[in-house]
Design goal:
With about 375 residues, this protein is of the alpha+beta class. The protein folds into 2 domains: about 220 residues, Endonuclease III, domain 1 (Orthogonal Bundle); about 120 residues, Nucleoside Triphosphate Pyrophosphohydrolase (Alpha-Beta Complex), CATH 3.90.79.10. Strands 1, 2, 3, 4, 5, 6 and 7 form a 7-stranded mixed β-sheet that branches. A hairpin with a 2-residue loop joins strand 1 and strand 2. It is elongated, with a radius of gyration of 25 Å. The relative contact order is 0.11. The structure holds iron/sulfur cluster. Iron/sulfur cluster binds next to helix 9 and helix 12.
């Protein structure tokens, strides 16, 4: 790791080092900024570990504006650990519908059941116990432990990586094993143990609102006097990432088979790692999207008997973190809707909301 040390006088480029990075001065500036600039968010108004947990999980891959609506709806339906533990997985997934990354919802559900059986329904109060819950990693455990219980654990998320890498001009790749270790140690060494919850929230909020990924307004930044990246002209080069995520391309031809306000749905397989246990239209997955002509001779359609195939499909692309899914929807109206494919079920359009559907399906239905 190349990192500017406190009191360092020169660097490889010959530029003069900034003034001593005083813990007190940067923290005072940060807290003052946080006090005036932080967003008013419902999960900041509580010390309830359950609510903080739900907010942290929702916000892992979701923007605050979108996450807020889900957070409020989720807590309205599942106000505590017990109500979440007692719900069916299908109901939890249905509440999560549209948020994506459904393993988060499955893990929340499993962890709530863990709390109900192993902790008598009371949210555990130590870092180790929280970290042992299903789906909770170092970041979430530290966030809950520090914000709910003021335990001295530093959080390191994307915002923290960015703020620390710039403040200290650290160029170790943040997606390397070494980088993760170094940034965790750095964050922990900087943690204000007198108020860890406030400290963690202030650093994350500063990264989210001020030290943003692209074009941060460094000229007006309260931490600029202590910022090594600003001093060295490295702001746009930090943080460093070593590798690009490999993206796999998939081709899904969906069959929207319906008749008289009824349609066919089928569950994704339990072993699926995209939308496990969610429901979708009958699907033909291939190395390309199928044409109407190819579809007419497909065994799936032959099972349906007499039908009308609307020849113009609806196409779009759905991007997930590691996958690019090319989707095509064909609308098919059989003379009689039969459940000939044993994996499918017939549901009415009124019942549709009871089934957790991936965003690609709801997006098509909204067209
Ligand atoms: S000066 Fe710029 S890079 Fe440095 S902490 Fe402030 S916003 Fe971030």
């Amino acid at each position: 790791m190349k990192k500017a040390k406190s009191g360092e006088e020169s660097n490889e480029s010959g530029a003069s080092a900034p003034a001593l990075l005083s813990m007190d001065s940067w923290l005072l500036a940060l807290y003052s900024w946080f006090s005036s600039n932080h967003r008013t968010l419902p999960w900041r108004e509580t010390r309830d570990p359950y609510r903080i947990w739900i907010s942290e999980v929702i916000l892992q891959q979701t923007r605050v504006n979108q996450g807020m609506e889900y957070y409020l709806r989720f807590l309205d339906r599942f106000p505590d650990v017990r109500s979440l533990a007692e719900a069916s997985e299908q109901e939890v997934l249905a509440m999560w519908q549209g948020l994506g990354y459904y393993s988060r919802a499955r893990n929340l559900h499993a962890a709530a059941q863990q709390i109900a059986t192993s902790h008598g329904g009371l949210f555990p109060g130590t870092y180790e116990e929280i970290r042992a819950l299903k789906g909770i990693g170092d970041y979430t455990a530290a966030a809950i432990a520090s914000i709910a219980y003021d335990l001295p654990y530093a959080v390191v998320d994307g915002n923290v990586y960015r703020v620390l890498s710039r403040l200290f001009a650290v160029d170790t790749p943040i997606d390397s094993t070494q980088g993760k270790k170094e940034f965790q140690q750095l964050a922990q060494s900087l943690l204000d143990t007198t108020k860890p919850g406030l400290h963690n929230q202030a650093v994350m909020e500063f990264g989210a609102l001020a030290c943003v990924p692209v074009s941060p307004d460094c000229t007006c930044c309260v931490l600029q006097p202590q910022c090594r990246a600003y001093e060295l002209g490295l702001v746009n080069q930090l943080p460093v990432k070593s590798k690009k995520t490999a993206v796999k391309e998939l081709f899904y031809t969906y069959l929207y088979i319906h008749s008289d306000n009824k349609l066919l749905l089928q569950p994704r397989s339990a072993g699926d790692n995209i939308w496990k246990n969610m429901y979708e239209f009958p699907l033909i997955e291939a190395d390309r999207l199928l044409t109407a002509e190819e579809l007419l001779s497909h065994p799936l359609l032959e099972q349906l008997g007499e039908l009308t195939l609307h020849p113009t499909p609806v196409d779009f692309t759905h991007i997930l973190s590691h996958r690019k899914i090319n989707v095509r929807f064909f609308q098919i109206e059989p003379n009689e809707l039969n459940n000939t494919n044993h994996n499918s079920i017939i549901v009415t359009t009124k019942e549709l909301h009871q089934y957790p559907l991936p965003r690609v399906i709801t997006r098509y239905l909204e067209c």
